[in-house]
Structures are given as C-alpha cells and as structure tokens.
Specification:
By secondary structure, the chain is α+β, with helices and mostly antiparallel strands. The protein contains ten helices and 38 strands. The strands form nine sheets. The protein has an eight-stranded mixed β-sheet, with helices on both faces. Strand 22 and strand 23 form a beta hairpin. Helix 4 (469-483) packs across helix 5.
Length: 650
C-alpha cells in the first residue's frame, strides 16, 4: 500500500464507469409469468424503457426508441405503466398520451395529445376501461386531479368517476370488478400526513356510463396516513395505516357491507409503509395460497416476511434473503419480484420462488464488477443531537486496498443530506458514495429527524422545524465523527439535492461546522418555493415551516438567500435549467450573492435537465465537478485528470 494523502487516492470507480455501466431500475410488474420493469438509461438521455424477462432468460425491450415511459403527474410521476394479460398501457413523457401495445404490435397512442396527464393505471376487464389518476392542466391556476375511466377501444371516451379532493392515488378494483377502493387527500396535507381510504360500488348504466355509488370512508383522516390499499384473493380490503404511530398492516371487514371493523394484522414498531412521493409504491402482496408476502423496515433495515391471515398468532415468518433494502414488491402465485440491494451490492430486480426459497437477480442497476477491497461497507450509527434526542445515519469510512493515510492524517468528511425531506437514505450500494470513499473521503449519509423508517414521532420532528432539526442532525453527526477521531474536523463538507440542497445551504449559512458544500438543485428561498412550485408540494411548507403568507417572517428567517452576510465558505451549485420544482433562479440568486461577497463559488447549469439529472454526461459532470471543487478548496491533488469547472474567487 502507498501512503498517499486522502483525496489523492486513485480509484477504479470512475464517473465514466458509473454512468456507462449503470441504469435506473423503476417500477416492477409480474404478469403471466413474465417480469416487467421500467429502466432509466442515462446513456440514452435518461429515457425510460419498458423491459420484459421471461423464464427462458429472454430479455426484450417492449417499447420503441420513439417513446419514453414516464408520467408527469405530481411532477414526480410513478405508476407510469400497466401490464395485464399481456396488454401494455403506459404514459409517454413527451406528449403525455396514454399508449397501448397488444401482443407483438407497435406502441400506439390511445388518447390524444393534450394538457392531461395520467398515472396509476388499473384495468377493468369486464368494461374494457382503464381507471387511473388524471391531472388536468387545461385551466388557469392549480391543475385538477380526478379518477377517470378511459375506454381501451376509444381513447376519446373518458369519464370522470371521482372528483372533489385535491389529490387521488391507488385506485384498486376488487376481483369481481364491482367495488373500487382509492386514497384521497386535501391541501395542506402530504400523503404521509393524512389521507383517506374510500370504497364505492362501481356501476355501469345501459348507455355505458360508469359511476361510483354508495361511497364510504373506511379509514384515515387529517392525522392518519393510509398507504397501498389492496384486495385479497377473497375480496377483503387490506391497507397500511400509521394510526398507532407506525405504518402497520390492517384489514377492513368489507365484503357485502362495511361493519366498521378494522383489524390490525401484526402490530409492531416497524414501518410497512413508505412516503408516497410517486405512484405505484408497494410493500406487500398476496401469494397464490392467500398469504401475505411483505417487506418492512426496522432500525433502518428492510426485512422480507410472510404473514398467514388465518394464523395471525404465528406472527411474521421471516424469509431469509441477503438484502437490507427491499421495495417495489409484487407477487404472482409463488413467485415474488422486488428491488433488493445491500450496502455492498447494487440494487437488483430479484425473482424469488417461495416454494424453493431460491432467488435470482434478473437485472442489476450496475454491471460494474468491483473488487470488494475497494468497497466501503456502511456502518449504521446513532449519535446524540439536540434536546437529548438521538439521530441516525450510515457511515462509510474511506477504503482503497492500494492506499493508506499518511502519518496522523484524518480523512475529509462529506455529509450527505437526502432529499424529500420526508424520505430516507437507502441501504443499497451507492457507487456515487463509493466514488468518494475509494478516493479517500469519509461519507456520512444522515437520516435526520423527519426521515422515514423510524415511526411517525421521528417523522414529525421536522414539522415546523425544517431548516433547524435537519441541520442540527447533520452538523451533530459530523461533530460526533470528528470527536471520535474518525474524520478531520477542519475538512468537513456537506452536499445534498433538492430538499437536501436546502439543508446544505442552511448548514453553510447559519452554522460554521462545514468548510465547503455543494447544492444540487437545492432551495435557498422558501418564499419562492411557496409561491412558485407545482401543486403536489405547494402546501408542503405549511407543516414544515408555517402557513404562508401569515407566517412570512419565518420563511424569511430560514431562507439562506437573505443571510448571505453570514456565509464564509465555498459553495458549488449544480442546476437543471428546466426544473419546475426548484426553479433555476433560486440557485442564480445565491451564486450572485456569493460572487459579490468574494467567496469561492461555482455554478454549473444543465440544459434540458429537470429536477434531478438523468443524462449520463450531466451525472458525470456533477459528480466530477463536486470532487474537483473540494480538491481546490481543501488543497489536495486528484489522482485522475478531471474536467475542471469554473470556480470564481479562488
């Protein structure tokens, strides 16, 4: 091993290899024994392609190069396709039309190009209609969300089924097709704050008009979050609720009528639900013999288990799999598919046979084979934070088999603040993190107060405290590592995207714990976010900050753009110019302030990128650019030739 300064280690994990050997694995489906998934390809400009895997190990692209399988409902999308009996329906990104593909035929538009957006499809076999969420952008002001039925033979025949709420998700038909369940919620709630579960009778008139009659509220409210309603094989309605403070599984006694009985299936301090940022999220399904196969999170780790509804006293029966991060679960008979990953293995689409308890990876997010001696395994840590509370994170020490530190040197630290902010960091292998650790950085990925996976009390810590609790936890996590002698307290940086970018900018503005940072499409002006963002998040800040404009002074107090005089460190900004969630002018205002103050600043803008970078060249540029920025600020020499970014005032 060579004694070389941290940051100057040569790594085989290059940005070129990451983007050329990595894909984004999206929503999964299983139909007639075939496994489908949506595959985002950075090397194709971020285009999403629907793929199919058959038992004969045959891989096939189901969509053509002219389409991009992606929904824009809520801007974040999800629920972009449906496969039923071999029929494929999907939302196309460029024209927002619903497309269909039957058998070996081509992909053809079902609906006309318009200002309507569609997501979260189910198919009513008897009536030949798609039931889905529609977002109407034809009028002035906020778009209107409804549940609609779209004829699969005449795309112009669209009937509104449910209207009146601000948001809808998860339409679900029972097996006889005469009952429809769905979730709705109203401003200012987000789906993890409070939603309602409804059921109604689906009736078709002689003229072919569908209506939903006898609508009844089953569960939920302004302070209860309902997630993923599903009908069991014998048409009993199941769902996830956090009514106890934890997202747990429940069954509603609902067959011919509702008697008001809600039965908990396995009460425990664990999370069976997720923050519903996108449509189509799943954590459980039903096996061929009516059992429930499910995944849940406890202490930051995912588990896979089976629950027998007829023998609830047996509790959850764990299914042994080597994955610490599991999501997107679907089942058909005895076959289960899901996203599975671990801190040392990249996320893969996993096909599990419940009879034999054997599994195989049918698609891996990265086919880059890396010697394990270059991989830093995540260490779950707990650390003290404000008010005597505890916060959580994943710590990755630097690791590279070819290098060691020079005498007495401690590594620089990069603190990562996840987006959301109502979300969590993933336990799956991140080549983006390994890029840093294999070059000599330590990384702390923080699950600050407000993160999911630790119950509602932990999730609610951020209410009214965004820009405070998250910043405290990131700073306290960094100081904890420095106090333990694990990192260099004088070379600590913080980085984040979107909401994580806001936490980053607050930490760099209002605290002195970090010497540098990078904001990827981050927020610096809360007023701008409150007054100029999309419908889904337009009232999100009511709970995170306070009502606007009634509590305008809090928005100003917590907006870094108003306190640039407190800045005393270097910041790099990476921004998509077509971002509708965080508009580019926010980054540009901050850059101008830093420029005028004479602080080191870099601004890298990407044409054609929205909220989050999808194109390979831009993902590479942002990763290398941030590393180059810290090299200049912290004064180390990268081992590789990295394309420079323009840094002012340095």
């Amino acid at each position: 091993m060579s004694a070389t300064p941290y940051g100057s280690w040569k790594s085989p994990i290059s940005s070129d290899l990451i983007v050329s050997n990595s894909i984004r694995l999206g929503a999964i489906a299983i139909d007639s024994g075939n496994v489908y998934w949506n595959e985002g390809r950075p090397t194709e400009g971020g285009r999403s392609v629907l793929m199919r895997y058959s038992d004969d190990s045959n891989y096939r692209e189901m969509t053509t190069a002219s389409v991009n399988v992606r929904s824009q409902v809520h801007e974040y999308g999800g629920g972009e396709y449906l496969v039923e009996d071999g029929r494929i329906y999907f939302s196309n990104f460029s024209d927002r039309c619903i497309y269909r593909k039957v058998g070996g035929g081509s992909c053809k538009p079902l609906t006309a190009e318009s200002a309507y957006r569609y997501a979260d499809f189910i198919w009513h076999r008897m009536y030949g209609k798609l039931i889905c969420v529609r977002e109407d952008h034809t009028g002035e002001g906020e778009p209107i969300n409804t549940l609609v039925a779209v004829s699969t033979t005449n795309g112009e025949d669209i009937q509104v089924l449910i209207t009146g709420a601000d948001f809808y998700a998860s339409p679900r038909l029972n097996h006889t097709g005469d009952k429809l369940a769905w979730i709705s919620w109203q401003h200012p709630n987000m789906p993890w704050d409070g939603t309602e579960l409804w059921v109604g009778d689906l009736v078709e008139s002689e003229s072919g008009v569908l209506t939903v009659q006898n609508q009844k509220l089953i569960a939920g409210g302004v302070n209860e979050s309902i997630f993923q309603p599903e009908w069991s094989p014998d048409d009993e309605l199941h769902f996830v609720s956090d009514r106890t403070g934890w997202w747990n599984l429940y069954k509603a006694e609902y067959k011919t009528k509702v008697d008001g009985t809600i039965q908990p299936l396995c009460p425990m301090e664990a999370e069976f639900g997720l923050p519903q940022w996108v449509f189509g999220m799943t954590t459980y399904d039903f096996t061929g013999d009516r059992q429930i196969i499910c995944t849940y999170t406890q202490n930051g780790k995912s588990h896979l288990a089976i629950l027998d509804p007829d023998q609830l006293d047996l509790g959850l029966q764990e299914v042994a799999v080597p994955f610490t991060s599991i999501s997107g679960l679907h089942c058909e008979g005895d076959r289960v598919v899901f996203h599975g990953g671990s801190t040392t293995e990249p996320t893969a689409i996993v096909l599990l046979d419940l009879k034999t308890r054997t599994w195989q990876k049918i698609r891996i997010a990265s086919n880059l084979e890396i010697d394990p001696d270059y991989i830093s395994a995540a260490q779950s840590i707990e650390f003290p934070t404000e008010d005597g509370k505890t916060a959580y994170g994943l710590f990755y020490p630097p690791k590279n088999k070819d290098f060691e530190a020079e005498n007495g040197e401690k590594p620089p630290l990069l603190v990562k603040s996840h987006g959301g902010p109502t979300a969590s960091t993933s336990g799956s292998l991140s080549l983006g993190i390994q890029y840093w650790t294999s070059r000599g950085f330590a990384v702390l990925d923080v699950n600050y107060g407000g993160s999911t996976g630790y119950g509602r009390e932990y999730r609610d810590r951020l209410k009214g405290n965004w820009g405070i609790v998250d910043v405290d936890d990131c700073a306290n996590g960094a100081k904890f590592l420095a106090d333990q002698g694990l990192v260099d307290g004088d070379r600590m940086a913080i980085s984040g995207g979107s909401a994580g970018g806001y936490t980053t900018l607050c930490a760099l503005t209002f605290r002195d714990d970090f010497k540098a940072g990078a904001s990827h499409y981050g927020i610096c002006d809360l007023e701008a976010l409150a007054t100029d963002t999309h419908k889904f998040e337009s009232r999100y800040l009511d709970s995170l900050i306070g009502k606007y404009p009634e509590q305008k002074e809090i928005y100003i107090e917590r907006s870094p753009i108003h306190f640039t005089e407190k800045l005393s460190c270097a910041i790099a900004f990476f921004q998509g110019l077509e971002d509708k969630v965080v508009l580019p002018n926010q980054a540009e205002m901050m850059v101008n302030a830093l420029r005028e103050k004479g602080l080191p600043v870099a601004y890298v803008a990407f044409e054609g990128e929205q909220h989050g970078f999808r194109k390979a060249e831009n993902i590479k540029r942002a990763l290398d650019g941030e590393f180059y920025f810290y090299a200049k600020v912290f004064g180390f020499a990268p081992a590789d030739q990295i394309e420079a970014i323009a840094i002012e005032n340095i």
